[in-house]
Structures are given as structure tokens and as C-alpha cells.
Specification:
Structural class: alpha/beta
Number of helices: 9
Number of domains: 2
CATH class of the largest domain: Alpha Beta
Radius of gyration: 20 Å
CATH superfamily of the largest domain: P-loop containing nucleotide triphosphate hydrolases
CATH architecture of the largest domain: 3-Layer(aba) Sandwich
CATH topology of the largest domain: Rossmann fold
Helix content: 25-40%
Length: 300
């Protein structure tokens, strides 16, 4: 039996379901999720290995119009992911009136990349059959997709064959990672993302996008199965610091408690998590801060 392997970029606008797809296909929480746009900031690799294949999914930041250096980095990450992959899964939502400008921009880049593209029309549970058929017609005229698959990732509608369909587009190849690997992300990176996810989930709209998280210590106690973690939560305004901490520290405690549960599930051991909140004005335009938080590439 031949073994297939390859890299698959998962791209699309913010909040269309890229991280939901990645987590669904891996069966594990690799990418953080929230209802807020631009949750994913970095390209995250999730690895799915079976007896006949190994698929490495690249969950990319949502493609949007950047307003700062961090936003520019995120968009660069998404488009850069198209360069060295074997296949692209492009996720969209059903069209309401016409194809959005952002999606037209994405499809122009897909044309230039000359990659095999699978179109996933997500959230079909929210539209009528007639509206879905119209969406399929408009998208198929815009780009010659290898496959067009209507799904509801949230309700797991029409998702049974997704892995097999994607596998069909991959070449024969080696196993790039150990069969038990589910990501190439460092534990510290995943931990920082879990913490940021809770900020996104618990805080109101104007605060979360100005937040960055840095794990400053990650220490395993030799005598016990305990890991001590300290992390800084950076925000851009003093008022935001007060909101993150909350009355008598209640919000920070809520963020820490929820994040700790996810971290313990990830690491399989007890965790002591200490969080600090620091103000760094306009950090999303600071090359120094972006580099410290891992948001830099050769194009930034």
C-alpha cells in the first residue's frame, strides 16, 4: 500500500471556521477558538497521521485589511503559507449578495499560486438550500476548484469524508513527523495561546485584540509532577489593565483558572499558573515586542 503525505494550508477570512476545521480533523484542541475575528495570529501546524497518510495542516491567520504591524504580519503569514504546500483548503461562508472583496483578493492569490484548491463552504446550517446553490454557482465561476464541499463544522454536517478527500490530493511521500506527534508547536507557545483564548472569551470587544501573552517561566519541579508557569499579559492601555484584572482580581482569576484546566489537559500534569498584567502602549506596532512575542517574519 502506498503512503501519502503532504502539507495543506487552511486559509480564509477571519471567523469562517479555520481553527474549527483544524481541531475537528486532528480530534484535539491545537488551535484556539473564539467568536471574535483574528483569533489566530500565527501559522499553526496540526498533524494527522493514519496507516495510509500523514497530513500536516497549516492553520493560518484570517486574511483582513491590516491596521498595524501585527496585522501585516498575520496577513503575510497566511499568504506565505501558500508557497510550499501540496494543497489548499479555502474556507468561506455562503454568499449573501455577492462575493466579498476580501474573498476576491484571496482567490486572486490562489490563482497565482497554481495550487490545488478545495473549497469548503461552511455554516450551511444558517442558509436555505437555494442560497447555498447560488453560492456554489458564484464561487465555481470565480475559480476552478478541485472540489466544492458544503459543510457545517459546528454541527458536523457533511464532514465524514473530509480527511479522505484531502488525502486524495496529496502525493506519495514520507512520514515527516513521528506518528504520535499532533503539532510542532512548542508547549510554551500553546500555553500562551490558551491564556490569550480566555482573554478573548471573557473580555469585551475593545480589549482582546490589544492583548499579547508571553510565557516567561516554565519550570518542572523535579520532586513532583508539577509545572510552575508564569506569564505576562500585555495590553495597550491602563484602563484595559484594570478590566483584565477585574474587581479584586476576579477577572484575572477567572482567566487563569480556565486556562489552567486546558493547560493541565495538554500537559497531563498539575500546573501552578501565575499571571501578570503589564501595559505596553501600541505594542502591536513595536518591532521589539512583536519579536518577543513571536510575531515576526522576514517580510515584517
Amino acid at each position: 500500500m502506498t503512503f501519502k503525505s503532504g502539507f495543506v494550508a487552511v486559509i480564509g477570512r477571519p471567523n469562517v471556521g479555520k481553527s474549527t476545521l483544524t481541531n475537528f480533523l486532528t480530534g484535539r484542541k491545537i488551535s484556539i477558538m473564539s467568536p471574535k475575528p483574528q483569533t489566530t495570529r500565527n501559522t499553526i501546524r496540526a498533524i494527522v497521521t493514519s496507516e495510509q497518510s500523514q497530513i500536516v495542516f497549516l492553520d493560518t491567520p484570517g486574511i483582513h485589511t491590516p491596521k498595524n504591524k501585527l496585522g501585516k504580519f498575520m496577513v503575510n503569514q497566511a499568504f506565505h503559507s501558500l508557497k510550499d504546500v501540496d494543497c489548499v483548503v479555502y474556507i468561506v461562508e455562503p454568499i449573501r449578495k455577492e462575493i466579498l472583496e476580501a474573498d476576491l483578493r484571496i482567490m486572486d492569490n490562489l490563482k497565482d499560486s497554481a495550487k490545488k484548491v478545495i473549497l469548503l463552504i461552511n455554516k450551511i446550517d444558517r442558509v436555505t438550500k437555494e442560497s447555498l446553490l447560488k453560492s456554489i454557482e458564484l464561487y465555481s465561476k470565480a475559480l476552478p476548484f478541485g472540489e466544492i464541499i458544503p459543510v457545517s463544522l459546528l454541527k458536523k454536517e457533511n464532514t465524514e469524508q473530509l480527511s479522505q478527500i484531502i488525502e486524495n490530493y496529496l502525493p506519495e511521500g514520507p512520514m515527516y513527523f513521528d506518528k504520535d506527534d499532533i503539532t510542532d508547536q512548542l508547549e510554551k507557545v500553546i500555553v500562551s495561546e490558551y491564556i490569550r483564548e480566555k482573554v478573548l472569551l471573557f473580555l469585551r470587544e475593545e480589549v482582546p485584540h490589544g492583548v499579547g501573552v508571553e510565557v516567561v517561566t516554565f519550570t518542572k519541579r523535579s520532586e513532583k509532577q508539577i509545572i510552575d508557569i508564569e506569564a505576562n499579559i500585555y495590553c495597550e492601555r491602563k484602563t484595559h489593565k484594570g478590566i483584565i484584572i477585574g474587581k479584586k482580581g476576579s477577572m484575572l482569576k477567572k482567566i487563569g483558572s480556565s486556562a489552567r484546566k486546558d493547560i493541565e489537559n495538554l500537559l497531563g500534569t498539575k500546573v501552578f499558573l501565575t499571571l501578570w498584567v503589564k501595559v505596553k502602549e501600541d505594542w502591536r506596532n513595536s518591532n521589539f515586542m512583536l519579536k518577543n512575542l513571536g510575531y515576526t517574519d522576514n517580510e515584517s
